[in-house]
Hints:
Blueprint lengths: L1 H34 L2 E2 L8 E2 L2 H8 L1 H34 L3 H15 L2 H18 L8 H26 L4 H8 L4 H29 L3 H6 L7 H8 L6 H27 L4 H8 L3
Antiparallel strand pairs: 1-2
Helix pairs in contact: 1-11, 2-3, 2-11, 3-6, 3-8, 3-10, 4-6, 6-8, 7-8, 8-11, 11-12
Amino acid sequence: MSRPSTRSLSDRAFGVWGVLVLIFLFLPIAVVIASSFNVGRLLVSWDHFGFDSFLALFLKPAVRDAVLVSVWTGLIAALVATLLGALAGLAMARHPGRWQLWLLGLLLLVSVTPEIVDAVSLLPWMVTLGQDAGIAIFNDGIVRLVIGHSLFSVAVVAYLVRARLIGLDAKLEEASADLYATPVTTFRRVTLPLAMPAVLAGFLLSFTLSLDNTVIAAFVSVSGSTPWPVYVLSALRSGLRPEIAAVSTIMLVLTLAALALVGYVLKRAGDSAADIARTMSGG
Length: 283
């Protein structure tokens, strides 16, 4: 008779512990969202409720420019990473060989390398190419950010596309070739539609990864192309204002919308909840 009572008590204890863990994880985010409605001079000093902080996105050029740089950089970096990563994933899935192990090893190395190492190595390389070698494109802030942000995302897209195509039967493409379709037609009419859910998911994940990339952006950005994370870091010296919380809330909603769209696309493609969770975590 005492065993059910003990089990029930332990279940309640684990339930309380789980709620405490969730509060610990999400309370800072809730504070930022609540602070975005603060109409006051500083973020930590609540004055009264209002939507004035969100207007800073339109009224303050520095805030607007930083957000636009982050969004444009995210879109371009996602396009570059999707193109390179999809081709790499396609090659590994449909034309495997000994080289595949080397490429997988290099992609794994890119995935596990700390961002600070990438940032420290990219900065002198770009300075050398842009100033010493006179290649002007490497002096452009957007180009620097796109290169830095797309490094990790290329590996993510390659993993997704490879995993998607390996799980599909290659006989569909062989049947297309038997019907005298050219390789380009087979790729456009068969392979690309099959891989499209993974390609789109990789694009959206790359975009979200670029939005919050702070370490590399802080190293390679130049004056006139400051992304939002670097702007927030610089604002720490003079005190955080409520508009930073407001724009951060907008970026959070944008990121959650992108992830929700990734989940929807993968679900429509037939992935299970476990597969979607594995994709979201980059596994």
